[in-house]
Amino acid sequence: MHTSGRYGTAILDPLTRAGALPLALHPVMTFTGRPDDVNRLTGISFGVTSPEPLRPVAEALVLEMGGEPVWITEDARPLYHAALAGGANHLVTLVVESMDLLSRAGVAEPGRMLGPLLGAALDNGLRLGIDGLTGPVARGDAGTVSDHLAELAKISPESRRAYVALARLTADRALGAGLLKPEAAERLLEALAD
Asked: 110 and 160: one domain?
């Protein structure tokens, strides 16, 4: 058994050929190497991959640990892991980036300011999907987005590039969901053009 998110059971083929019963049980949680990590196992999802005859065993092990088994096929493991890593890892980067920018703007406790906002945004996204989107991109406010880009260009070209990439993705999703009107999207994408 292994707990990697990236791999299913194919990586265990040499052991399987030697008679082992392969299981991939990936806890969908972030672990920082601190003592409280083990407390995070209860109530989380586990990405489970195994040969079909071992599926009940794999699922029983996850249930015994207090988790929820979710079946992931071998060929879907790379996409599954990309989704999880993108969500969790990039979220931390975005939060730290926002805290750094707020510090530069003179906010003494950026984490305290961001906590309620980001908690609500995460809740909106999880409950409502794209319908939980708010802000200047969702409104098609090209002027505000242009102002953001001008300020970010003064501070960090990397921050500006990240903002542009995420704003374009946000605009595409908002347009596809009908939240952003095509004429507003056009003005917005012009502001985001390099």
From this structure: yes
Q: Within a domain: residue 33?
A: yes
Last residue of a domain, one of 72, 107, 125: 72
pLDDT digits (tens, 9 = 90+) for 2-41: 999 999 999 999 999 999 999 999 999 999 899 888 889 8
| Rounded Cα distance, 9 and 128, in Å | 34
Question: Do 84 and 145 fall within a single domain?
Answer: yes
Return the ∠ at Cα 31 (arms to 61 and 163), rounded to 5°. 125
- Provide the residue type at 182 as one letter: P
64-77: per-residue pLDDT in tens? 999 999 999 999 99
Q: Tell me the whole-structure pTM to 2 decimals.
A: 0.86
Range 169-173 contact pairs with CB under 8 angstroms and sequence separation of 24 or more: 170/133, 170/137, 170/138, 171/137, 173/130, 173/133
**What residue numbers bound the domain in which 84 lies?**
80-192
5 inside domain? no
